[in-house]
Design goal:
single chain; 370 residues; alpha+beta; Rossmann fold; D-amino Acid Aminotransferase, Chain A, domain 1; Dna Ligase, domain 1; 3 domains; 4-stranded mixed sheet; 13 helices; 38% helix
Amino acid sequence: MRVVVLCGGESPEREVSLASGRSVASALLESGYEVTVVDPAAEVPVLAGPLRAGDAGGALGAAVVGKEPPSPAERPLLRRRMHAALTGGPVLELLRGTELVFVALHGGWGEDGHVQGLLEMAGVPFTGAGSAACAAAWHKGRAQAVVGAAGVPVAERVLWRAGDVTGTPGASDVPEEARRLVAAGPVVAKPVADGSSVSVRRVDSLPELVAAAAEVHAGERHAGRGHAGRGLVRGGELLIEPFLPGREFTVAVIGDQALPVVEIELTSPVFDYAAKYQPGAVSEVCPARVPADVAARLQEWALRTHRALGFGEDTYSRTDFRCDADGQPVCLELNALPGLTPESLVPRAATGTGWSYAELIRRIVALTEH
């Protein structure tokens, strides 16, 4: 089978995605597939290929995830390149000529349904969820409402459209509900639509909340400038929810199977970008050291979340949970295209099932045959 691996892209998770793409490509080569690696946002999109078993090594190169995500100022150029590559020219023809596209993009257009919609319109088969399910999961506020209605515990939340084209947010703009949450104790503030915990902050005071909102607003201004040839700038939308001080867990779902629960033991207050991708920042325990009934409940909630957001048996996902002060787990979010480096959480869960990394990738490919 000929497979094109899509990775890189325009989001703050670009470097993570490049690392995932190279890892996925190596696993596919090990399993006998013909592989081409494409970064649609790169100046030269075809990074390697077509490759066959034995061609890996230096042909794929190495990807190093930096301590900070790429600058938002880079995103307009990356988006223009990505849009051009996926809507015409040699990259689109390459995609149309392959038997399968393995989507190893994270965040941004790769995870919010944009890329999936383009592939659907082009009639190209691909791994992972379709455009509608990705869009449903991408907006954390709306996704939490759906998941809560499905009977999975979620945190209280406030959405704040922080600033607009006329100016950055100030203290007088903070919604009353958000003021109440901050007054009651620390909160977590994060962009309502973003990945890899980019710009996630623990906030202890109203001035800190305003600063977090200003940061998100500034990032949106940079990312929106010049988008699709227009000076589109919109204020960033912030999700504010109580800080949960308890243990953190994650559960991957592959098809209709929930993998063993992974516990994330943090050395920082929140599982932010630096904690996720820098060595020694966290310890990941699989299977998590919890009673069997707790593990079963988390797995059931992950499956319920997966299904409630429109993810079928031909897709995969990862759902994150954190415990409140009483030790009760609360669903934080579902990741439609979680990281797939060998050190990422889904491969870590797969090892708890007895799967090798290559077997995990083969199983994801096999889901497309359902």
